[in-house]
Automatic annotation (TrEMBL), chains A, C:
It comes from Brevundimonas subvibrioides. Keywords: Transferase. This is Succinyl-CoA--3-ketoacid-CoA transferase. Pfam families: CoA_trans. GO terms for molecular function: CoA-transferase activity.
UniProtKB/TrEMBL annotation, chains B, D:
Keywords: Transferase. One of its GO terms (molecular function) is CoA-transferase activity. This is Succinyl-CoA--3-ketoacid-CoA transferase. It comes from Brevundimonas subvibrioides. It comes from the Bacteria. InterPro entries: 3-oxoacid_CoA-transf_B, CoA_trans_fam_I, NagB/RpiA_transferase-like. Belongs to the 3-oxoacid CoA-transferase subunit B family.
Length: 234, 219, 234, 219
């Protein structure tokens, strides 16, 4: 039970400092660590570099940390849904580094896997490759990208056992498993904490070695684009 | 007459082949899913981390944990599998997806594509577009022939920042279809939309192109 | 049902040629594609380069292909259990490239993931790094290793559905999932083929996109070192 | 008296800490699992692809799909998780395993280790040893002080091909325990096995070493 904390606030205790780098899981608003983002805001920590595929929306997800101007820099692939983000960025208050989504995912995976750099064809011949080494393998050009690590990773999973083994649900998995591996400290919020031994050991997505602290959260799970089909009636 | 959005999607669906794994971009490409021929086995990939993407859910089945790369709620089907975004882009980067159908702002004679950034305008980011064009085996662009100012989007050279270089294999527009010949050999006009003339394409296309000997009017 | 073949012989039809590179899953004798190795032997294909963590034992697993001298070169991390291997190697009949086990696993993962090269600290300052680029990142030296692909991957899984989604069992997973991604063609043998839709989509280890052909095999599952504890009686 | 194999394992078990994730090498290191103090939470990793390794099975529970990196049949326990060998070595290379306890043929003053190859003899391969010494946070070597010819295995410089350079933090032998000081600062003798004298260590050690001010005889 050493890894289980009472709430998001206590789970972040002693882990935050100004200027730190934080990875935050999720794709859009799907699978984001809602509870830990709010708790991170409440710590008042400043000048964060946040690595996250997206930047939330106004007032929800990372949008909450933008509102309070706690973020100095974002490393993301797409930030389209956030007016406050736009405003700060256009005003020069916020630094932004765009990474192609797959390069971002692989940089995080590499960081967690002890790989300081790798080559990819993604972005060759584009702005993304500027200032980076380009090398030819087997007649094709590839750009060198570096691994990413963070001082803290905040992650949302579906279930955890008491030893920190994690299972994700559907497309809420997204960036969460890699980020769990790439944080010097990884804090996870889940919908359910189950007794050790109740998860199928063949179906664990993130082994407990990557998980330092766990909380059971409460979730709004806001939907960005509710698209439905209409049931045809007879 | 130029093709409508639906007709563009229908024409793009002819690019599908039985057994294909396909990634569809946002916008018109998403509509291609509605035109998969009956009996054809096509598996749709969503780059956030899903293979075997089903249709939009009924209202009562909406699940916030189940969205596509356009952040729309979707459903799973019997063959669905979920994986991380790293595994998803390993699949894309490794050349395991047969076909990507994408929109574009500009495409050039040499297969260059620009679809993520307009200098001076707010940039939202490239998302997975650069990975898709670099990694997927065959990239087909579906787009309006001209931009809203009436200017050709099929160009000698892209003017906007690129998404990828030499990656597009085919361009399907509301007027016609071009093949991008391998090795920088330029464009070849291979189809006209119904009622569209060669002169019309010539007038509205900035890029140079050859005309296929088997050029046919679309059915 | 397009991916399902009647037997190992028909599943390899049209896929083999002299001098080809084959990846073969398994760790020791655990999780090896027994049926496909035997069928590969029966094709009579020659001068194979085989990428496999180990080389089987005399008369079983890849030992069968060594006996018939169909292997020209092995890329492995450990080959200790095979006398015929020793004999051929010492006689200069067999080429051998040793890779550290983790580097081998990552090279295969990279090959399948479109990554032509990456850096690792493993092997720096050893024979493994000879002739390879060494580069310093953040004050530590790393050696550049390249991705591996194969003309054919033969893989053993526990269950497959008709669309090729795979599930592995316990430590029989080992090298199989990466090899499934790194073959130009991947053929899989399983203990059970289940109807599509019966595997948990959150628990699929290898999505069907990586699987070209599937057979249901029969398995001996030989044990290399049967270690047991004695039940204390009252 | 020099430590027996079992006593070496028992001493090595003092390196364990509550909450540690540990990889144990083949041979004496494997025996360390028998000396994990009661109540201490130590999770064993097996580099073929398992975290949370249990003891050997009872005869009727042997499962050919469940082996450790030494290819021995083992069992699972409640916290067990399985993963691929790529994921396993990502865990090792990424520095997520706290401690590796390994055997060695030679260790040098600077922390170099050789444990995989004797030139002129048949080489079986390095397996995962190079990944473990390069990746795991702390590497402790457990070995006999001398080889079968009576020569010191604790050397000024390794003579055999290396497994890793500057990676060993501590050396536990049947005679004593050395710390490898960081930054190439050499060895420090920190413990003597019961009944072993300083002179005995001096006589049997080729490497130079300093003697800890707090040197204590092992209990």
């Amino acid at each position: 039970m050493r890894k289980i904390y009472a709430d998001a606030e206590s789970a972040l205790e002693g882990l935050t400092f100004d200027g730190m780098t934080v990875m935050s899981g999720g794709f859009g608003l799907c699978g984001i660590p809602e509870n830990l983002i709010a708790a991170l805001r409440d710590t008042g920590v400043k000048a964060l570099t946040v690595i996250s595929n997206n930047a939330g929306v106004d007032g929800f997800g990372l949008g909450q940390l933008l509102e309070t101007r706690q973020i100095a820099k974002m490393i993301s692939s797409y930030v389209g849904e956030n007016k406050e983000f736009e405003r700060q960025y256009l005003a020069g208050e916020l630094q932004l580094e765009f990474n192609p989504q797959g390069t971002l995912a692989e940089r995080i995976r590499a960081g967690g896997a002890g790989i300081p750099a790798f080559f990819t064809a993604t972005g060759v011949g584009t702005l993304v490759a500027e200032g980076k080494e380009v090398r030819t393998f087997d007649g094709r050009d590839y750009v060198m990208e570096t691994g990413l690590v963070a001082d803290l990773s905040i992650v949302k999973a579906w279930k955890a056992d008491e030893r920190g083994n994690l299972v994700f649900r559907k497309t809420a998995r997204n960036f969460n498993p890699m980020m769990a591996t790439a944080g010097k400290v990884t804090v996870v919020e889940v919908e359910e904490i189950v007794p050790t031994g109740s998860l199928d050991p063949d179906a664990i997505h993130t082994p407990g070695v990557y998980v330092d602290r766990i909380i059971k959260g409460t979730f709004e799970k806001r939907i960005e684009q509710r698209t439905i089909r209409i049931r045809e009636t007879a | 007459m130029p093709r409508t959005r639906e007709q563009l999607a229908e024409r793009a669906a002819q690019e599908l082949q039985d057994g294909f794994y396909v990634n569809l971009g946002i916008g018109i490409p998403t509509l291609v899913a509605n035109y998969i021929p009956a009996g054809m086995e096509v598996t749709l990939q969503s780059e956030n981390g899903m293979l075997g993407m089903g249709p939009f859910p009924y209202d009562e089945d909406v699940d916030p944990d189940l969205i596509n790369a356009g952040k729309q709620t979707i459903t799973e089907i019997p063959e669905s599998a979920y994986f991380s975004s790293a595994d998803s882009f390993a699949m894309i980067r490794g050349g395991h997806i047969n076909l990507s159908i994408l929109g574009a702002m500009e495409v050039a004679e040499n297969g260059d594509i620009a679809n993520w950034m307009i200098p001076g305008k707010l940039v939202k980011g490239m998302g997975g577009a650069m990975d898709l064009v670099a990694g997927v085996k065959r990239v087909v662009v579906v787009m309006e022939h001209a931009n809203k100012h009436g200017q050709s989007k099929v160009l000698k050279a892209c003017t906007l920042p690129l998404t990828g270089t030499g990656v597009v294999s085919r361009i399907i527009t509301d007027l016609c279809v071009f093949d991008v010949k391998p090795g920088g050999a330029g464009l070849e006009l291979i189809e006209l939309a119904e009622g569209v003339t060669l002169d019309e394409v010539a007038a509205r296309t900035e890029a140079a192109y050859s005309i296929s000997q088997t050029l046919k009017a679309a059915a």
